[in-house]
Amino acid sequence: MMKVLWREDGDKFLTYLNGTRNFGRDLKFSVTAQYQFALERPENPANQDWCDVAAAVFKPAPDADYIEAGEQFTVNLRRYVNQWISTGFNPDGSEEPFKRDLNRMALGNHQDLGAFLNRWLDANHARSILFSTGEIRQSYTWRSCFRTEDKKTPVVEANDELARQLIIFLQSPLRCKLSQCSNQGCRTYYVRTKPRAYYKRATFCAKCRSSATARRRMEEKRGADRNSALAEAALALNAWHEIDDGTRMEHGYDERAYIATAVAGFGWKRTWVSRNMTEIERLAEGINNAKG
Predict the structure, then answer these.
(1) How far apart are CA 121 and CA 197, in angstroms?
(2) pTM
């Protein structure tokens, strides 16, 4: 199997997806650097004509154009990646990332992504490279298929880079490892280092997974504390009917205030007793029936 020659390790792709890196800013920096290089006149007069052409080609566009290009790049990159990731989900909500396939896309999405990438591939034919190990890899040239004028605009550059990044992504292990956090308040893109073939439920990034685990443990502890508090409250309710009048007077003849003292160690107050009084009475009755 021939491999695509990919000089990036995927980190750049992720930073673009998550918005921690801006393509428009990167593009402006690159163009400005090339423009400044072209403005430096070489000592050899024969190269001055090339510098004049290069200076005209690489002359930076207005800042607003780079901002627009960066915004379009991020929006379209996420749209196409989300379309791809969605092909791994089944109707019941389970996920099989190794079954991601363009043929599992909705018809409109398939035509959208497929046409976009095929247009770029038609203009950028792969070149095979034979390595000393005997391995054959493919390297792509980089010619624009989106521009309508001789000079490429930032938006055209963004479309070219978008297509190139998507081709690289689909030929890399990330195509099955990339995922998006199911937490609606997060939605961060992350890489599963050892993806499973099947996920029955939603998955989360490391940060949300840790938060979810901590939240689940807290809920379990609260549940256990509540059950213990209900048991203590039921015993206190039974005791209320047996205590002397002086003790009742100390609690203002308030049955629920007396029960609240029994559950104060769990952090509950009289309002909690009132909310759960029905259940407390049921438990107290059960204790009495067990005694016979």
Answers:
(1) 30
(2) 0.63
Residue 168's CB is within 10 A of a number of other CB atoms, namely 20
Question: Both tokens of residue 173?
Answer: 């292990």
- The band of 99, judged by pLDDT with boundaries at 50, 70 and 90, is very high
What is the chain's mean pLDDT, rounded?
A: 79
Q: Which region holds residue 11: left if phi is over 0, alpha if psi is between -120 and 50, else beta?
A: alpha
Closest CA to 286 of 226, 234, 224, 223: 234
CB environment 89-107: b (16+ within 10 A), e (fewer): beeeeebbbeebeeebbee
pLDDT digit string (tens) for 128-144? 888 888 888 777 665 65
Strands (E), the chain: 3-4, 126-130, 136-140, 178-180, 189-191
Choice among 12-21, 28-37, 105-114, 141-150 with the minimum mean pLDDT:
141-150
C-alpha closest to that of 274 among 259, 285, 253, 284: 259
Cross-strand partners of 248: none
Cβ pair 139, 7 in contact under 8 A: no
Contact 95, 89 (CB under 8 A): yes
214-228, pLDDT tens digit by residue?
A: 567 667 667 777 888
Selection from 196, 171, 8, 183 nearest residue 84 by Cα: 171
The HSE-up count of residue 90 (CA atoms within 13 Å, CB side) is 12
CA distance 30 to 60: 10
Beta-carbon contacts of 47 under 8 Å, excluding residues fewer than 6 positions away, are: none
